[in-house]
Each structure stands twice: as structure tokens, then as C-alpha cells.
Amino acid sequence: MTVDHPNDPAAARARLTEMLVRTGDEDRAAFREVYRLTSAKLFGICLRICGERQAAEDVLHDVYLLVWRRAGGFEPGRASPISWLATIARNKAIDWRRASGSRAAGPIEMAGELADTRPIATDTMLADEQLRRLHACLDGLEDRQRDAIRTAFFDGVTYSELATRIAVPLGTMKSWVRRGLMNLRSCLDAA
């Protein structure tokens, strides 16, 4: 029987980490547990970026195929499990958007109907001290780096769209984000 830890973010994170590591060893039961713990969160990311339910479902399928193949490369000490998974989902959704040539959709009216009102272990994990550290480190970045990272990673905007929005070359935008992420990683590692 699976035991969730909705009130203990550290235990929930440890559980998800363990399941990802076991998934890397091709443990199908662990993979099912990773899906159970994270699918609502990752679907939300895909839906926000894709803007279409069917596309988000298709992208989510691709995300979990990739997770199955890449779980062996997950390094628990390097990134939180939900951050690792969310990055995969974000990148896959952005790839879909680029390939389909579609732009970001407006707010989705039915999103409230899709949401599961029960607390999810991964949501609880994001609410713990790691989230506070992340925001403290983000606040310590240069304004342009912080704004670019927040817009790209939290809103699902591509680097190209960001560069166009603020009228800077694409290479400049990529450099800002890359340097900002390096500074962010240093800050998080020091915390």
C-alpha cells in the first residue's frame, strides 16, 4: 500500500526521489507511482503551455515516455524530482507549440473543472522551504535575468518570444537566462 505524505514535504520529496530512482532501474510499479504522484501537476504545466486539452494529453504521454527512458539519468542530489519532471514537461510542451506553430492560448475557462481539489504530494513539496529558497535566490538575481527566467520557466514563454517582447537579440536573451540559471544554481547549492 502506498503511503502519501501530504503534510510532510521532505517525506513526499524523498518518496518521489525513491520512485524515480527505482524507475531508472525499470521498476514498472515505481513508474506507476511516479505517474500517480505527478500527473496532475505535469498535466497542468502542459495544458498551460499548449492551451488545448487534447494536445496537453498527447504531450503528457510523451513526457512520461521520456521519463521512463531517462529516469536512470536522474541525479537526486542535483535537482529536486519535481523540478526535473516539470522541466521535461515544460520543454516537451514548448516543443509541441513550436512544431504546431501555435501561440500561447488565453486562460482556459474549464481549467477549474479539470483540477483535482485533493492535495497532491508534489504540490505540498513545492510549498516547503525549497520554494522559499528558490524565490529568495531568484530575488537576488539581476532584474533582467530574474524576469527572463520567471517568464520562461513559470509562464512557458520561449526565449525567442522573450527576446521579441523586450527587443533584444535572441543570443542576448539566451545569455541572460543561462547566466541567471548558473547564478541561481550557485545560490541554491549554497543555501
TrEMBL record:
Positions of the RNA polymerase sigma-70 region domain: 39-100
Pfam families to which the protein is assigned, alphabetical: Sigma70_r2 (PF04542), Sigma70_r4_2 (PF08281)
GO BP: any one term: DNA-templated transcription initiation
RNA polymerase sigma factor 70 region 4 type domain boundaries: 132-183
Entry-linked InterPro entries: RNA_pol_sigma-70-like, RNA_pol_sigma-70_dom, RNA_pol_sigma70_r2, RNA_pol_sigma70_r4_t2, RNA_pol_sigma_r2, RNA_pol_sigma_r3/r4-like, WH-like_DNA-bd_sf
Keywords linked to the UniProt accession: Sigma factor, Transcription, Transcription regulation
GO molecular function: DNA binding; sigma factor activity
Similarity-based family: Belongs to the sigma-70 factor family. ECF subfamily.
Protein name as catalogued: RNA polymerase sigma-70 factor (ECF subfamily)
Biological source species: Sphingomonas jinjuensis
